[in-house]
Amino acid sequence: MSRTTRSTLWLRITAFGLAVAGVMALVAGIVSVRLVTTASRDTIRETLADQADVVAAQLSDTRVAAPRVTQILSGQGIDVVRRGVNGGLAGQDQVAVRAARRAGLGRVTAERPLHGSATIAGGLLLVEGRAVDGGGAVALVRQAENSATAGRRLVGNVLFALAIGMGVAAVAGLLLARLLARPLRRTAEVAVGMSHGRRDLRVPLEGPREVVEVGASLNTLADALAHSEERQREFLLSVSHELRTPLTSVLGFAESLADGVVTGDEVEEVGHTIKQEATRLDQLVSDLLDLARLGANDFRLDLTAVDLTVLLAEAARVWESRCAAAGVELRVESPTTPVMVRTDPRRLRQVIDGLASNAVRATPAGAPVVLSLYDMDGMIAVLQVRDGGPGLSEEDYRAAFQKGVLHSRYQGVRPVGTGIGLALVHGLVTRLGGTIDAGRAPEGGARFRIRLKALGKNFG
After folding, report:
1. Residue 399, Cβ neighbours under 10 Å: how many?
2. Residue 402 belongs to domain with CATH number
3. For residue range 176-216, what is the model confidence (pLDDT) as tens digits?
4. Of 95, 267, 268, 353, which one has the fewest beta carbons inside 10 Å?
5. 3-class SS of residue 31
């Protein structure tokens, strides 16, 4: 099976930081080029305008030689174009003359100076025109590309600074990623240790809040697993004891029969004892198997329409004799009209028998055991098994359906079962689509209440 190579967290964060820095550099570079070029062009234009004012004033003074001014400006990359009184334009560079004409040198007056530009052969030329005494005018022409040199130099400096920034971002991203990855790596190590059976490992709660929350959740899970496994261990010990007790009896009496120690009339009594213990052992194994199968997806349920009044009456006939043998009074509270539900009658009967068995075991002679059925507005069918026994504490009712909890608390104090009966009942009722809860009964003992959806109604 092929394995996909995954990059580490620090590599991802570093790459992300570089990508963000790169995008920022690109955007900043584009904006900077625009801003620097525009600012440089505006600076050149302002300088050219100031020079145009000075040149116009000098040419108006007859003592200043025009060729000398032209020569000085030409050395600075500036061409001079003159407009005579007759409107004709003259200059040493014909491209500059054309640019001055297009920019509007012919319309320059003392009140209307020229601040313009013209594109000649793909090149942009800046033109500043001023009127001179005697009706003429002069224009200074300079290529805008000459001004871009300073702009490119500035852009280069900006990009160099941004490149340094990207380097700093890479180093910072690497350090941040390692800082974040360190507690996550420790968390992963603890998780691996837990998968190998370690329950004493805990994650140090340090780092960013989200990482601390992950560590705290893993620590909570470790505590829950340790508690659950301890309860499972206690449950298995309890079940092992329950299995060993009937097995010891069966083996002991079987050896007595095999060795001829038991003879005559005692054989029947011993055989009866062996049968009882074997039946008890069989019931325990069956409950364990059913409890294990409940979690399987292929757990079989034969759902059909069932009249609970008939089902409860059948159960009452069986438990009437058992209650009489135990000296317990059996009461049945059931409506005369059918209460229909869609369920598995065999599994529901298993639930009723399990609850009734617990009730009879816990109820002293003379006290009642009640099998009750009623419906709530034709929407919910409610089955109850109540008893007049000693009952349970509020804490016991909350933990009643957890495997082995009541068994461990009351073993040696009162008659108890195998410790898995109520857990099995809860699992069966849940698989049947119902709910079950425990509480105090009006008769003074425990009350177990099952709610099932009435046939054709909504269960809310």
Report:
1. 14
2. 3.30.565.10
3. 777 777 777 788 788 888 777 777 778 888 777 777 888 88
4. 268
5. helix
